[in-house]
Amino acid sequence: MSIDITTRRRTPSSVLSAIDAIAAGRAVVLVDEQHDSADLVFAAATAGTAVTAFTVRHSGGFLEVALDDADCRRLRLTAAAGGGSAQRVSVDLRRPGTGISAADRAATMAALADPERTHGDFTRPGHVVPLRAEPGGLLLSRGRAEAAADLVDMAGLPSGAGLAALVSPEQPWEMADHGAARTFAAEHDLAVVSIGELHAHRLAGRPLVVREATVGLPTALGPFEVVAYRAVDDSATHVVMRSGDLAGLFPVPVHVHHECLTGDMLGSTACACGTALTDAMTTVKEEGRGLVVYLRPSGTVRGCGLLDDPDDSDLAAITAAVLKDLDVARVRLLHGAATLAASLHAAGVEVVDAAPGALAG
Fold first, then answer.
1. Ranges of each domain in the chain
2. What CATH topology corresponds to 5-204?
3. Contact of 352 with 332, CB cutoff 8 Å
4. Is 43 helix (H, G, I), strand (E, B) or coil?
5. Strands annotated E in the chain
6. Where in this chain does the entry annotate a coiled-coil region (predicted)?
7. What pTM was computed for the model?
8. How do residues 86-95 score in pLDDT, each as one tens digit?
């Protein structure tokens, strides 16, 4: 994913500075706006004693390496108990030493990024924690592991991003927030980039969806035009129900709905999903224009509830891609969600008078 000269000309300066720093073997500050936190990030392949010692000194000392799925499988990195779906059992490079020194941990991180290394080159448990970055990176999951892995990939280096949560310089018993992280970066002459900026850059550089077909759909509420999309990364099929003229300066009413088989199709009263979908379609018809974006993720099972948590950021990105394909740049969310609104904003879609309620389904 390394960028060429033409792409560099249209790359935001913050993203470009971070890419150049990573490529030169330096650490950068990665800001997570959603969680008001930050990490020090560097390429595991170029990890040396100096950058590792610096990272340990200014973090909690918990060093991680974000790797893609193929490398996790190749090295047989198994999931850690209680560590979530991303965290793997900690490792040390098999070599003389305790594994805890900056030199030892630098060697372990570099080895994790070395495609010639195998499962037997590491002992377990150790002092470096591998993280599995979701396939598709920031295009499908706005996590710190995915952001760090994408950043190293953009720099043209092998898979493997070292990262550690930054500690507040003023209150070392707490983690650094957004403001403290930027102050720290300025004091140490480090490039700083946010997950949102990296996410927007990736969205601008590659389509998330491909338009497959457009057909008419008669319904009890009146006719809709249905546009079907295929997701590039997982081939999931999403559909948009469109009604009326979407052009003009007025924001387009938009409802985003996660597929719920029992609520939408079987009429279950255990959730409000079916009612929310019908209400949204009714509103669109009553207002004479609008969209219902119906998301159908591939291979996922999700209970009913709000589409308003970090795990749903990939679906929000899909929504942004669909709206941009339909030339919808200004929307009014019939059911608002912070994650959705943030992703739309990052993708260049203006959200006007977003409702404070839930995004159903």
1. 5-204, 207-351
2. DHBP synthase (3.90.870)
3. yes
4. strand
5. 28-32, 37-43, 64-67, 91-93, 122-132, 161-165, 192-194, 209-219, 222-231, 237-243, 252-258, 290-295, 330-333, 350-351
6. none
7. 0.61
8. 899 999 999 9
User: In DSSP terms, which residues pair with 164 in a beta bridge?
Assistant: 40
Q: What is the DSSP letter of 264?
A: I
Peptide bond into 125 cis (omega under 30): yes
Distance CA 258, CA 47 (A): 42
Distances (CA, A) of 76 to 118, 120, 123: 8, 9, 12
* CA dihedral sign of residues 56, 59, 64, 67: negative
**Could you tell me which CATH number the domain at 207-351 has?**
3.40.50.10990
Q: How many residues does the chain have?
A: 361
Query: How many CA atoms lie within 13 Å of 137's alpha carbon, on the beta-carbon side?
Result: 26
**pLDDT tens digits, one per residue of 55-80:** 999 998 999 999 999 999 999 999 98
